[in-house]
Design the sequence.
C-alpha cells in the first residue's frame, strides 16, 4: 500500500468519532502538517470525511451522510446509489425528492444527507449536499431556436436544456443532432451554458443516432494525420532482412479459420504429431508489435482506442487498415511476421510444456468457419478441394473436444447464451435477425486460443514479470442467493456460500440445454457473475476456472494483447524489466478496461437501433415471446429471433400489478396473474424507433385485457433495464475467441 493510502486508511479509522485538527496531529505525530492536510483534503473532496461548523473532522457516516452516484429520471426526482467497498453487500438506492438534487446531473458523484423519511416504495430519502465529481461535460442533443436564443435539448430528458451563445454554434444548424460541452452547469438564476463541439447530422435519423452513440463513448472513425502517415509508410511486404532472427515456419501446414466476411486475419493454427505420440499445437499470432513500437503515434492512438468497435456492417478499428487489413493480416500465400505459441499436448488435452518464438509463416489457406464445419460434416466437394488439410482438420477437431472436456472437468462454466446476429444489405440496412450459431470450427478455434492465452499467462506469472492479465473475480454470494431462488423451482439446490463450487452451476447449465422452460437460467447466472476486466496482477479467471489467463491472440484489435506480446518478448530476450514497465502495464490495464466498456456500450446501443429498424416493418403483428426482464414500470418480452421490447405496466390491464423486487416479478393484486422471467406471453408490436432503439409491445388480444395505449412512459427506476438487451451484462464472463471479431459480421462477440 502506498504511503498516501496508508495515511488515509489510518485517518478513516481514527475519525469514527469527531476530532479537531490538533487532536488528529497528536494521534498521528509521525505525519507532517502538509502531509496531513493534503490527506484530509483528499478525503473531504472524495466525500469520505466531513468537517462540521465546529471544525471537527469525522467520517461522513457519523454526520448521517454518504457518497454515491446520482441517477436522474425524466421526472423531477432521482436516486443515489451509495458507494460500496469491495466485498460489501450493495445497499438500497436512496430516493432524492424534487428540488433536492443540489444541482447534480445524471451520473455525477455526490455527497448526500440522509433523512428519516421514506418514499411510497419504502426507499429512504436523502438530499444532495454537494457534487463531488461531474460525470462528464459533454452531451448530445438537438439544436433548437426560440426567438434569437439557441438551446440544445439533450437526447435524454434526464438532463436539462443547455443554452448556446450564437458565437458557439460552429457549423451546426437548427434541427441537427449536436455534441455540446457544458461550460457552466447553471444555478437557480442562470441556465446551463455550453459550446457545440460537433455536428452529428440531421436529428431524428438513425445515422445521427449512431454518430451520437459513437461520440458519447469517444469512438472516432478518423485517425490523426501523423498516425496515418506512419501506417502508410510501412511496407506492405515482409522484409526478412529487417525482421530479426525468427523461427522459419513457412513450410509448415498453417492456415487461418475466420468468418465468411472477415477482412483481417490475426491468428493461424497448426498441428503436428511428435515422435512421442503427443501433438505440437501451434497458435501463430500477427506480430503487431514489430510494426507498432512503444511511444510511436500508432502506439499512442492504439492505447487511446483500446479496442476495435464492431456494429452491423461496420468496424471502427484500433489500427489503420494499412496494418489491420494489410501487412499484419495473415493472408494466404504471402510471408507474414508472427509470434508463435508452440504447445505440447497429448490426445487427452493435457499440456506438457510450451515455448514461444518470433516467427515467419506463409498461410496455406484462408479457411472459413462455414467451410470447415462442412468439411467436418463430410461435404465431398470441399473435402476434395482441401484434401491436403482434411486429416489435420479432423485431428484438430478431436483435440479441441479433448481440451473442452478437460476445461469442463476442472469446473469451467460454458455459458453458451444465444446472441442475435444482425444481417445488413449493401446499403447497410438490416434485412434479417437470427441467433448466431457456433459450429465445430468456432469451438475449435476458441479452445486453441484459450490454450495459447493460458500458456503465455502461466509463463509470465511464474517468471514474476509484468504484463496485463485478463481476470475474473468470484461472484458476490448475495447475487448468487438471488439466482439460487430462481433455480430452486426447477429442482436445483444452489449453495450461494460456495461460489468456488462451479460444478453446481454446471448442473444448471446442462439442465437448461434440454428444457425450454429453463433457458432463462444461464442468463440469470451470467447476471450474478462479476464482469471480467484487465489487471496488472494474475488473480485468475473464475468463469474459465483458470489460474493463469491473459489476452495474447488478437493484437490487431485489442491493446492488452499488444502489451502481452511486448512483455513476453522482453522476457524471452532476457531484457531487464523496470518500474516503468510495471507502471505502463497498470495504466494499460485500466485504460483497456475502460475502453472495452465503451465499446460494449456502443455495440449494444447501436444494435438496438438496427433491431428496431428491422422490426419496424412488423408493427401491428403478433408474436410468441417470453418475459426476459421485470421492472416496476413494466416487463420486457423477447422474441425467438432475439428482439426485445417493453410492455409498459399501463398496458397490463384488468388488474393492479405490484412489483416484487426481490423475486423480479409483477403480480396482479386481484387475479394473482404473475409475470416473472421466463413467463410465456403472446405480444403485439405497437412501436419501433430506429432513432432511440425503443421497441414497444402490448399483450396480444386475448392474452390479457388491453388498456388504452397512453403516452410513452419513461424508465424512471434505476437499475438493469433488461437482461437480454444489455450486452455488457452478457459479457460478464468475457471469454471470446481471442481474435474472432473481424470484418462485417464477426462470428462471436463473447469476451472472456
Sequence:
Amino acid at each position: 500500500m502506498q504511503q498516501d493510502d496508508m495515511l488515509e486508511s489510518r485517518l478513516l479509522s481514527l475519525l469514527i468519532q469527531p476530532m479537531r485538527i490538533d487532536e488528529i496531529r497528536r494521534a498521528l505525530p509521525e505525519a507532517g502538517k502538509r502531509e496531513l492536510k493534503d490527506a484530509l483534503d483528499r478525503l473531504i473532496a472524495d466525500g469520505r470525511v466531513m468537517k462540521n461548523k465546529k471544525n471537527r473532522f469525522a467520517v461522513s457516516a457519523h454526520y448521517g451522510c454518504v457518497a454515491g452516484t446520482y441517477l436522474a429520471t425524466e421526472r423531477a426526482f432521482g436516486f443515489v446509489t451509495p458507494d460500496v467497498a469491495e466485498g460489501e453487500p450493495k445497499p438500497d438506492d436512496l430516493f432524492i425528492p424534487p428540488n433536492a438534487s443540489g444541482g447534480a446531473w445524471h451520473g455525477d458523484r455526490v455527497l448526500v444527507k440522509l433523512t428519516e423519511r421514506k418514499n411510497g416504495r419504502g426507499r429512504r430519502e436523502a438530499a444532495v449536499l454537494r457534487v463531488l465529481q461531474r460525470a462528464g461535460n459533454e452531451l448530445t442533443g438537438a439544436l433548437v431556436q426560440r426567438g434569437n436564443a439557441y438551446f440544445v435539448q439533450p437526447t435524454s430528458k434526464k438532463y436539462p436544456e443547455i443554452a448556446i451563445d450564437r458565437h458557439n454554434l460552429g457549423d451546426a444548424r437548427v434541427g441537427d443532432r449536436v455534441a455540446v460541452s457544458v461550460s457552466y452547469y447553471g444555478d437557480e438564476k442562470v441556465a446551463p451554458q455550453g459550446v457545440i463541439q460537433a455536428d452529428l447530422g440531421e436529428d431524428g435519423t438513425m445515422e445521427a443516432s449512431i454518430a451520437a452513440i459513437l461520440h458519447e463513448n469517444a469512438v472516432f472513425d478518423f485517425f490523426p494525420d501523423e498516425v496515418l502517415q506512419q501506417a502508410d509508410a510501412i511496407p506492405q511486404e515482409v522484409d526478412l532482412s529487417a525482421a530479426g532472427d525468427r523461427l522459419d515456419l513457412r513450410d509448415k501446414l498453417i492456415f487461418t479459420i475466420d468468418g465468411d466476411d472477415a477482412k483481417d486475419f490475426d491468428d493461424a493454427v497448426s498441428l503436428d504429431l511428435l515422435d512421442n505420440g503427443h501433438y505440437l499445437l501451434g497458435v501463430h499470432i500477427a506480430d503487431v508489435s514489430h510494426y507498432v513500437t512503444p511511444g510511436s503515434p500508432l502506439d499512442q492512438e492504439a492505447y487511446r482506442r483500446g479496442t476495435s468497435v464492431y456494429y452491423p456492417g461496420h468496424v471502427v478499428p484500433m489500427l489503420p487498415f494499412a496494418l489491420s487489413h494489410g501487412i499484419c493480416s495473415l493472408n494466404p500465400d504471402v510471408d507474414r511476421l508472427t509470434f508463435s505459441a508452440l504447445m505440447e499436448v497429448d490426445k487427452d488435452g493435457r499440456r506438457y510444456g510450451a515455448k514461444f518464438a518470433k516467427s515467419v509463416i506463409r498461410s496455406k489457406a484462408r479457411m472459413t468457419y462455414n467451410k470447415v464445419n462442412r468439411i467436418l460434416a463430410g461435404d465431398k466437394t470441399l473435402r476434395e478441394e482441401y484434401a491436403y488439410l482434411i486429416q489435420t482438420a479432423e485431428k484438430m477437431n478431436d483435440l479441441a473436444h479433448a481440451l473442452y472436456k478437460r476445461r469442463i472437468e476442472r469446473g469451467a462454466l460454458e455459458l453458451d447464451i444465444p446472441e442475435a446476429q444482425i444481417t445488413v444489405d449493401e446499403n447497410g440496412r438490416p434485412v434479417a435477425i437470427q441467433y448466431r450459431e457456433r459450429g465445430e470450427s468456432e469451438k475449435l478455434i476458441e479452445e486453441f486460443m484459450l490454450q495459447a492465452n493460458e500458456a503465455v499467462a502461466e509463463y509470465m506469472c511464474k517468471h514474476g514479470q509484468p504484463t496485463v492479465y485478463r481476470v475474473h473475480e468470484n461472484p458476490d454470494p448475495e447475487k448468487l442467493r438471488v439466482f439460487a431462488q430462481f433455480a430452486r423451482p426447477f429442482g436445483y439446490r444452489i449453495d450461494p456460500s460456495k461460489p468456488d463450487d462451479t460444478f453446481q452451476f454446471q448442473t444448471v447449465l446442462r439442465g437448461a440445454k434440454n428444457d425450454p422452460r429453463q433457458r432463462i437460467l444461464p442468463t440469470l447466472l451470467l447476471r450474478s457473475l462479476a464482469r471480467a476486466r484487465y489487471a496488472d496482477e494474475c488473480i485468475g479467471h473464475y468463469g474459465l476456472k483458470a489460474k493463469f489467463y491473459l489476452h495474447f491472440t488478437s493484437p490487431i484489435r485489442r491493446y492488452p494483447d499488444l502489451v502481452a506480446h511486448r512483455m513476453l518478448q522482453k522476457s524471452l530476450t532476457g531484457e531487464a524489466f523496470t518500474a516503468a514497465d510495471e507502471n505502463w502495464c497498470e495504466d494499460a490495464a485500466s485504460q483497456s478496461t475502460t475502453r472495452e466498456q465503451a465499446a460494449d456500450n456502443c455495440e449494444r446501443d447501436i444494435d438496438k437501433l438496427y433491431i428496431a429498424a428491422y422490426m419496424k416493418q412488423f408493427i401491428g403483428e403478433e408474436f410468441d415471446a417470453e418475459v426476459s426482464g421485470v421492472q416496476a414500470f413494466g416487463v420486457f418480452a423477447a422474441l425467438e429471433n432475439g428482439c426485445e421490447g417493453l410492455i409498459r405496466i399501463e398496458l397490463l390491464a384488468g388488474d393492479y400489478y405490484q412489483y416484487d423486487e426481490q423475486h423480479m416479478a409483477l403480480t396482479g393484486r386481484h387475479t394473482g396473474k404473475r409475470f416473472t422471467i421466463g413467463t410465456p406471453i403472446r405480444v403485439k408490436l405497437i412501436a419501433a424507433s430506429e432513432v432511440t432503439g425503443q421497441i414497444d409491445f402490448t399483450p396480444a388480444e386475448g392474452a390479457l385485457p388491453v388498456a388504452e395505449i397512453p403516452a410513452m412512459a419513461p424508465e424512471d427506476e434505476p437499475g438493469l433495464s433488461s437482461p437480454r438487451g444489455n450486452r455488457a451484462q452478457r459479457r460478464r464472463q468475457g471469454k471470446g475467441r481471442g481474435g474472432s471479431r473481424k470484418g462485417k459480421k464477426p462470428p462471436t462477440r463473447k469476451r472472456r
The domain at 3-61 is CATH 1.10.10.10 (Arc Repressor Mutant, subunit A). Residues 705-733, 736-751 have pLDDT under 50 and may be disordered. The first strand starts at residue 49 and ends at 51.
